[in-house]
Design a protein that fits this description.
By secondary structure, the chain is an alpha+beta fold. Among the domains are: about 200 residues, Methylamine Dehydrogenase, Chain H (7 Propeller), CATH 2.130.10; about 170 residues, Methylamine Dehydrogenase, Chain H (7 Propeller); about 300 residues, no CATH class; about 120 residues, no CATH class. About 40% of the residues lie in helices and about 15% in strands. It is built from 38 helices and 33 strands. The longest helix has 28 residues.
Length: about 1200
């Protein structure tokens, strides 16, 4: 069962177990120290052996305990007095731009910071005896509290102005010696100090400004009453003392500096001294954590962990002197080496590891450091977490103990903050690793004296995870006082982790939260466990079967129907009376009608098998025996044993069919809308029994959800137990033939939970549990199918029928539609509905398994189809569905899972896509070799072509030159590249010229091809002058097209940015188009230049000149000086331009007679003015030409 809090399906615990809840009110918070027997909580979430659940309440002042959440081994309870109204309002309605921080001390005081508001209240009352022993937030041996009870009262103070923003970690509330009211000391991050001698008077305070300029303060720890230590974000230490001078209280600040000797100094390393300091200044130190511990009444030890070193200091309670104990600048290297040796021992480069030190806490075992590491090159984005215990030996720290957490995060730059947000509180035996939403209890207590390389450093497994699943709830702070873990919940205030009544064994305690979210007692993914529970003969007593006590003669004589006669033959067979068995069979065969479909023998065999699967227990008094000769009935009182024995009985019946040659006489039977071999229908019955066994083996560990599903199955089918003493479970596991119905209900349950608006975690948990059950059961069915394939093999002539097992068939009796529904639920409600990496890992794996079941069924059907046309249609459907089911895994970057399916079902497109997305050349080469018989290389190259990845083809397939050349032979657009690489420039020039001449789409592409062709021709050996001339001519044609005025192209709607290739005739038409009124003799002259490229230059030339004639008005001219008019006419201007450029009139000017009768000119040829002017013009032109 899910071990997280707030789960919909909580653990089923024996609530009848009664244990005493010992009150610790008189010991935990009294003056007794931790050394007193019975004064502290038992270490760890389960306590000492034999201990019960412990209460943290005192008898007089704690409100009724409210259980916030439960898990298998821990209870999360509200602790202390109710929150004041003002505090609750701030926690509920605080704006995001005004952050809220919380802190509390073991003296019973808590405080909240919201902007400049400081709210102080008591979360616990206590006796007044130890009032004077309070020492601020660091805490001493006890929990002193003031004499006056201030339950639910709240004091509000005003903090000094600060632009950075105040935080509760820089504030402490304490009882000064000789005072009854609490005092408060607050330091702003900028270094302004404010001290209130009494929290009852906000206006009465002492201020000290800017105690350390240019530094930002991070945390305040207490040494004794009036003596405190501040640390900045860059690890500078400042001591604060509240002193009484001249009857007035003052604040004295003093910076603490490490010694500057040979081994002193922050961040200095011995190697740096010998080799020399780095020329590049090192970045500033970054504080990870500061912590204090009282080692005696005369000394406190302060531990400071930075991102480059760890320091240890000793202070006296009075603060009059301090000693620098040691500094270890190699601590990060030691942590890095631990991860290398533990997880990536083959790695030679320690810089491969991304390392984070997250938190630190001194314990009586040593200094406990929480660290995380990720090696993207070795294990991908997995983040591993470890708890490392260091002790001081000599001049440095030595790793003594290590515990690897089973929980793993997933690293990305966007989620780095989430992966590194964990903090740590610990006692001697248990560490609580937590962030704002979850707590992971981790066992620290190992065999004493173990080293980092001993068995104690093997991966420890988290007990469970404690989740805050209520929306908007979360952890604002965490502290451990005297081995007690206290957390501050945003909704519930202070909560305490206490052990539950359930006491797991050591094996259960070490179970991992990441290995199974359901139940620590069983791993449902343990195939060995399931296989043994189903098939192991040691757990099954076949002697419980009633069939061994049946009298075959009585059966044969009592009933003369076919079923009874075959049962009698079967009983004779297992009693080794083969002659009697054969005699009955021979008589039976003579009376049975033999048909190729739905024969009586087939119907009889199926009836016996179906009845056997649903026979009721023989010895269970709650059942009324209705079948006298039940072959599958068992005298066992256990459901799982009854099912196993049904499996044995059916197997013996099948062996009887084979041994008596009846199996070879079985044909086919109509099943719904399909016809299936009877042997396959018998296999379905056997597999359903196996499914029932597997489901029952999982029932105890998933009782809540399986019981709910069983109830829904019986309700939907209007079935109920025949006796009030029987349960739904009894009936369900007897009616094995309907076992498929529960899988349909599993799919419906998830949608019901979504409609009920359960929390995301509850839905995710239920979905994972349902999928786990389904996958596990179907895996066992698949194993059984493969193991018993020979037992259910049919004759060759029956193989013409399609093979569709019940797990792959559609409709109400099959699982295909159900599995597709589950895949959809997993994708929509699981993968897309959850951001939790733990859930997503399981969802991806379950989706892979479910898709595998669906595709396996489709593949088996495809292989059994004999009709080629139907096979082709089914193959197309299979390929389409295969891609649709696997691609979501590719989109989610689950490449290994997707590749596993694609390799099994030969989805080459998926394989190529994975190689492309991961840029994995080795994998692509491996696939080319593995699937050589399927022509994988040609498919892969074609895919790159379709995806416009032509540039990758030559790089990725350079090692397969033969296959590449074969492909390129049909793709000249790429073949020239290979020819250039091979130095065959002449052939490349020919291919490029041919491509250019065939290019009809893009003008720029044609120009590039021509240019490349010319370059190849120029670089090739030999005479290619003719080819170069041809290329130049093609380029000239492109130039003429590019010179077409843009206005013309716009008029006709041509794309001017991505110009298409036009034919010479089309270019001519554009140059002389009537729609372009701005045309001049220049455009017509360019049209004439195209005559060398057209097929009928005479006709086109005539067309151009006629177009020029029609541009002019031939009726309106100066009759006194017609030559003057002709000089401005398009026709004659064009003649002048052509004469200037070309010289010879005969080369461009048609004879005048061609115009006088040209039909293109229409009625103009009848015009006297036109005839006069054109004849006059020709005469004048020829006269002028002769003169020149």
């Amino acid at each position: 069962m899910d071990k997280s809090f707030g789960s919909l399906f909580g653990p089923s615990r024996n609530n009848s177990i009664s244990r005493s809840r010992q009150s610790l009110g008189g010991s935990l918070f009294s003056a007794g120290g931790p050394g007193r027997k019975g004064s502290i909580l038992p270490s760890g979430p389960i306590g000492r052996k034999g201990s019960g659940r412990y209460s943290l309440s005192t008898r007089s002042n704690i409100s009724t305990l409210q259980v916030v959440a439960k898990s298998e081994y821990n209870i999360l309870e509200c602790y202390g007095l109710p929150l004041p109204v003002q505090v609750s309002e701030i926690l509920t309605f605080a704006e995001r731009n005004a952050p809220v921080s919380i802190n509390y001390s073991q003296n019973g005081w808590a405080w909240l910071v919201h902007g400049r508001r400081l709210l102080i209240w008591q979360y616990r009352e206590s006796h007044s005896k130890a009032m004077a022993a309070s020492a601020g937030i660091a805490g001493g041996d006890n929990f002193p509290t003031p004499r006056r009870a201030l339950a639910s009262q709240c004091r509000q103070l005003t903090l000094p102005h600060c632009d950075i923003g105040h935080k509760a970690a820089l504030i402490t509330v304490f009882i000064a010696e000789g005072h009854q009211m609490a005092s408060c000391l607050a330091v702003s991050p900028a270094g302004d100090v404010r001290y209130w001698p009494s929290i009852a008077h906000d206006g009465s305070s002492i201020d000290e400004c800017n105690i350390l300029e240019g530094q930002e303060f991070e945390e305040l720890v207490g040494l004794s009453s009036g003596n405190y230590l501040l640390v900045t974000t860059t690890c500078s230490l400042v001591q604060l003392q509240i002193q009484l001078q001249g009857g007035r209280q003052t604040i004295a600040a003093r910076q603490i500096k490490p010694p500057s000797g040979f081994f002193g100094g922050i961040g200095k390393k011995f190697a740096s001294i010998i080799i020399g300091m780095h020329s590049i200044p090192e970045r500033e130190n970054k504080l990870i954590r500061i912590n204090s511990e009282k080692v005696s009444s005369h000394e406190w030890h302060i531990t400071v962990l930075a991102d480059k070193w760890i320091q240890r200091w000793a202070f006296s309670p009075s603060g009059s002197n301090e000693r620098f104990l040691c500094e270890d600048a190699e601590i990060i290297r030691k942590i890095r080496e631990f991860f290398l040796g533990k997880l990536w021992s083959t790695s030679r480069d320690p810089n491969e590891i991304e390392l984070w030190t997250l938190d630190m806490q001194p314990t009586d075992r040593g200094v406990l450091i929480l660290a995380a590491a990720c090696n993207m090159q070795r294990t991908g984005p997995q983040v591993h977490y470890a708890l490392l215990t260091f002790v001081y030996e000599g001049d440095g720290m030595v790793l003594k103990e290590s515990v690897m957490m089973k929980y793993k995060g997933f690293y990305s730059r966007e989620r780095e903050g989430e992966c590194t947000s964990f903090k740590l509180i610990a006692n001697r035996a248990v560490a609580y690793v937590y962030n704002d939403k979850v707590i992971y209890p981790v066992i620290l207590d190992r065999n004493s004296g173990s080293s980092a390389n001993s068995e104690s450093s093997s991966p420890s497994e988290d007990v469970e995870k404690i989740e805050f699943n209520v929306q908007d709830d979360g952890i604002l702070a965490g502290n451990s006082f005297q081995n007690t873990a206290l957390f501050f919940s945003k909704i519930h205030g202070l909560v305490v982790v206490t052990p539950s009544d359930f006491e797991p064994s050591s094996e259960v305690f070490n179970s991992s939260v990441s290995s199974d979210v359901f139940n620590p007692n069983i791993s449902v993914n343990d195939s060995g466990f399931i296989a043994q529970s189903i098939f192991a003969p040691a757990t099954t007593n076949a002697g419980n079967l009633v069939l061994y006590d049946l009298d075959p003669e009585e059966i044969s004589s009592a009933e003369k129907d076919n079923v009874s006669q075959l049962k009698a033959a079967f009983i004779y067979y297992i009693k080794r009376n083969t002659p009697a068995s054969n005699e009955i069979i021979n008589e039976l065969l003579q009376t049975l009608e033999q048909k190729s479909l739905d024969s009586e023998l087939d119907q009889t065999v199926l009836t016996i098998a179906q009845d056997l699967a649903e026979d009721i227990p023989a010895a269970d008094p709650r059942w009324e025996v209705t079948t006298k000769h039940a072959l599958g009935s068992s005298t066992s009182m256990q459901i799982v044993q009854q099912l196993r024995e049904k499996n044995i009985a059916l197997t013996q019946f099948l062996e009887f069919l084979h041994g008596s040659s009846l199996w070879d006489k079985l044909t086919a039977t109509t099943s719904g809308d399909t016809i299936r071999p009877t042997g396959h229908l018998l296999a379905d019955i056997a597999e359903k029994i196996v499914a029932a066994i597997a489901l029952k083996c999982l029932h105890n560990s998933h009782s809540r959800i399986i019981d709910e599903a069983i109830d829904l199955v019986l309700k939907e089918s209007n079935r109920s137990p025949p006796s009030p003493n029987l349960t739904n479970q009894d009936l369900f596991y007897v009616q094995v033939n309907q076992i498929h119905e529960i899988f349909k209900v599993f799919g419906e349950l998830v949608e019901n939970y979504v409609k009920q608006e359960l929390t995301t975690t509850q839905i995710q948990t239920a979905l994972v549990e349902i999928n786990t059950i389904t996958v596990t059961v179907l895996q066992e069915v698949t194993k059984f199918r493969e193991l018993k394939s020979d037992l259910f093999a049919v004759r060759d002539e029956l193989r013409r029928y399609e093979y569709v097992p019940w797990t792959a068939s559609s409709g109400r009796y099959g699982l295909k539609d159900v599995l597709l529904h589950m895949i959809s639920n997993t994708l929509n409600y699981g993968i897309k509905g959850s951001g939790e990496p733990e859930f997503k890992i399981k969802h991806y794996q379950h989706m892979t398994d479910l898709v595998d079941f669906v595709l396996d069924g489709r593949k088996r059907l495809l292989e059994s189809v004999q009709d080629e046309d139907k096979r082709a249609v089914l193959l197309q459907q299979f390929e389409s569905q295969r891609s649709d089911l696997i691609f979501p895994l590719v989109d989610a970057e689950q490449y290994e899972l997707a590749a596993k399916l694609a390799e099994k079902y030969l989805d080459f497109q998926i394989l190529v896509v994975i190689c492309d997305k991961t840029n994995n050349q080795a994998r692509l080469d491996e696939y080319i070799e593995r699937y050589k018989e399927y022509d994988f290389s040609q498919f892969a190259i074609s895919w790159h072509m379709r995806q416009n990845k032509q540039g990758d083809i030559f790089h990725r397939f350079k090692g397969n030159q033969a296959e590449l050349a074969r492909f390129l032979s049909d793709h000249p657009s790429l073949a020239w590249i290979q020819l250039v690489f091979n130095g065959e420039l002449a052939q490349a020039a020919d291919v490029l010229l041919a491509l250019a001449q065939n290019e009809k789409e893009l003008l720029n592409r044609k120009r590039v091809m021509l240019s490349l062709s010319k370059l190849c021709a120029l670089a090739a050996e030999g005479d290619f002058s003719a080819q170069i001339t041809e290329i130049n001519s093609e380029v000239r044609l492109l130039d003429l097209q590019e010179q077409i005025p843009v206005d013309i192209l716009n008029i006709y709607g041509y794309d001017t940015k991505n110009a298409k290739v036009l034919s010479p005739e089309e270019i001519v038409d554009l140059y002389i188009a009537d729609e372009y009124s701005k045309s001049s003799e220049t455009e017509f002259r360019k049209a004439l230049e195209l005559l060398d490229f057209v097929e009928d230059p005479i006709e086109v030339r005539h067309k151009i000149w006629c177009a020029a004639i029609l541009r002019d008005n031939w009726e309106d001219y100066n009759r006194s000086a017609p030559l003057d008019t002709m000089q401005g006419m398009m026709f004659f201007r064009l003649i002048d331009l052509c004469y200037i450029l070309d010289g010879e009139l005969e080369n461009f000017l048609p004879p005048v007679e061609s115009f006088l009768s040209a039909p293109e000119l229409g009625d103009l040829v009848e015009s006297k003015s036109f005839q006069y002017l054109i004849k006059l013009g020709y005469e004048h032109i020829y006269d002028s030409y002769k003169k020149k």
